[in-house]
Write a structure and sequence with these properties.
- By secondary structure, this protein is α/β, with parallel strands linked by helices.
- Helix content is about 45%, strand content about 15%.
- The chain contains eleven helices and eight strands.
- A four-stranded parallel β-sheet has the order 2-1-3-4, with helices on both faces.
- Strand 7 (about 280-285), helix 10 (about 295-310) and strand 8 form a beta-alpha-beta unit.
- Helix 6 packs across helix 8.
- The longest helix is centred in the first third of the chain and has 26 residues, at about 55-80.
- Bound molecules: the ligand C=CC1=C(C)c2cc3[nH]c(cc4nc(cc5[nH]c(cc1n2)c(C)c5CCC(=O)O)C(CCC(=O)O)=C4C)c(C)c3C=C and fe (ii) ion (2 copies).
- The ligand C=CC1=C(C)c2cc3[nH]c(cc4nc(cc5[nH]c(cc1n2)c(C)c5CCC(=O)O)C(CCC(=O)O)=C4C)c(C)c3C=C binds near residues 42, 92, 147, 288 and 289.
- Catalyzes the ferrous insertion into protoporphyrin IX.
- This is Ferrochelatase.
- Its EC number is 4.98.1.1.
Length: about 350
C-alpha cells in the first residue's frame, strides 16, 4: 500500500533557485493593546509546554479560569503605556522589523540572500516567514533566535515551531540555527559601548549598574536549562570589559510570573534594598533582550524606577537595549555572517 504523507503543499512549494533565507525571530507580542489582543497572545504563549512545563489540569484551570480572565485587562494597560501609536504596534515588532531591514541592507550585495522576520507567538508567524522565504526561492534557511542567552523557554521553542512547520513540507529547505551568543566578543563589545555612551550622556553619575535579565523558575535550571549560567557568563564578561566588580555591576532577574521560586536575586527586591541601603543613583541595563519591549520599557523603566524612587532613590536610568543601533546591528551581522559561512 502506498503511504501518503499528510503534507500541506498549498503555499510552500519551493520555487526553483538557490537563494539563502535568514529569518530573525523574537518572542512575540499582542497585535492590539487591548484585553482581547493580549488574551489571544497570552493564551498561545502560556499554552506552550516550553514556557509552562506542567500543562496539566491544575494549570488549565489556573490559565483559563484565573489568568486569562484578569491579566489581559491589566497587561493591556501596560502595553498602552509603551505602544507605538504611529505604527499602531508593539515596540518589539517595530524594532525587530527594523533589525531585519537593516540586516537586509547590510547584505544587499549578496543578491541571493533574503532576510525576513517573525514572532514565535502572534504575528508575523514563523510559518508565514518560512513560507515567504521558500516562495522567494530559498532552499537554505538560517534561523536566528534573537536571544543572547539560550533557554528552552525561548530558543528551543523557536526550533520546535520551525520543525513543526517543516514537518508539513515534502521539499524541505536545509536548516541552520544560530547558537546563543552570550559571550561573543561583538556582543560584549556592543553592550559595553552602549553602556559607556549612555553613562556619558546622563545628567548624573550612577553609583552602580544593575544588569537585569528575564527570570525563569529555578526548577527549570535545576532540570538542566543552561540559561542562568549564560546570564552569569555575560555579566562576568561585561564586568571584565568595563573594569567593574560584582559590587558595581550587579546581576538580577526580573519579570517573575506565578508563585514558584524564580532565579534570584529578584530585580524589584534589589531596587528596594539598594534604595533602602542608601544608594541614590543607579542605571539598569537589560542585556538579555535584543529589543526593547514591555519588560524593559514598562517593567524596568517605569515600575522598577518607581520602586527605587519610592524607597529613597533619587536618579534612575534605564539604558536602552541594543535594538537596531549601530553596535546592535554589528552583533546581528557578525553572528549571521559567521553562521552563513559556506552558504554565501
Ligand atoms: C513561565 C513564564 C515565563 C518564562 C519562563 C519566560 C521566559 C523568558 N521570556 C523572555 C522574554 C520576554 N518575555 C516577555 C513577556 C512575558 N513573559 C512571560 C512569562 C515568561 N517568560 C509573560 C507572561 C509575558 C507577557 C507579559 C506579562 O503578562 O507579564 C517579553 C515581552 C513581550 C512584549 O510584548 O513586549 C519578552 C521579550 C526571555 C528572554 C525569557 C528567558 C528566560
Ligand atoms: Fe517572558
Ligand atoms: Fe513583566
Amino acid at each position: 500500500m502506498t503511504r501518503v504523507l499528510p503534507i500541506d503543499t498549498s503555499k510552500a512549494t519551493a520555487a526553483p533557485g538557490a537563494r539563502v533565507g535568514v529569518l530573525l525571530v523574537n518572542l512575540g507580542t499582542p497585535d492590539t493593546a487591548d484585553a482581547a489582543g493580549v488574551r489571544v497572545y497570552l493564551k498561545e504563549f502560556l499554552s506552550d509546554r516550553r514556557v509552562i512545563e506542567d500543562q496539566g489540569l491544575v494549570w488549565q484551570f489556573v490559565l483559563n479560569g484565573i489568568i486569562l480572565r484578569k491579566r489581559p485587562r491589566t497587561k493591556a494597560l501596560d502595553y498602552q503605556k509603551i505602544w507605538n501609536t504611529e505604527k499602531n504596534e508593539s515596540p518589539l515588532k517595530t524594532i525587530t522589523r527594523s533589525q531585519a531591514d537593516k540586516l537586509a541592507a547590510a547584505l544587499a550585495d549578496r543578491t541571493h540572500v533574503v532576510v525576513d522576520w517573525a514572532m514565535r507567538y502572534g504575528n508575523p508567524s514563523i510559518k508565514s516567514g518560512i513560507d515567504a522565504l521558500i516562495a522567494q526561492g530559498c532552499d537554505r534557511i538560517l534561523v536566528v533566535p534573537l536571544y543572547p542567552q539560550y533557554s528552552a523557554s525561548t530558543s528551543a521553542t523557536v526550533c520546535d515551531e520551525v520543525f513543526r512547520v517543516l514537518a508539513r513540507l515534502r521539499a524541505q529547505p536545509t536548516l541552520r540555527v544560530t547558537p546563543p551568543y552570550y559571550e561573543d566578543e561583538a556582543y560584549i563589545e556592543a553592550l559595553a559601548a552602549s553602556i559607556e555612551a549612555s553613562l556619558a550622556s546622563l545628567p548624573f553619575k550612577p553609583e552602580l549598574i544593575v544588569a537585569s535579565f528575564h527570570g525563569m523558575p529555578k526548577s527549570y535550571v535545576e532540570h538542566g536549562d543552561p540559561y542562568q549560567g549564560h546570564c552569569v557568563a555575560t555579566t562576568e564578561a561585561l564586568r571584565r570589559r568595563l573594569g567593574m566588580d560584582a559590587s558595581k555591576l550587579l546581576l538580577t532577574f526580573q519579570s517573575r510570573f506565578g508563585n514558584d521560586e524564580w532565579l534570584q536575586p529578584y530585580t524589584d527586591a534589589t531596587m528596594k534594598r539598594l534604595a533602602q541601603d542608601g544608594v541614590r543613583r543607579i542605571a539598569v541595563v537589560t542585556p538579555g533582550f535584543a529589543a526593547d519591549c514591555l519588560e524593559t520599557l514598562e517593567e524596568i523603566a517605569q515600575e522598577n524606577a518607581e520602586i527605587f524612587r519610592h524607597n529613597g532613590g533619587e536618579a534612575f536610568a534605564a539604558i536602552p537595549c541594543l535594538n537596531d543601533s549601530e553596535p546592535g546591528m554589528d552583533v546581528i551581522r557578525t553572528l549571521v555572517l559567521r553562521e552563513l559561512q559556506g552558504w554565501i
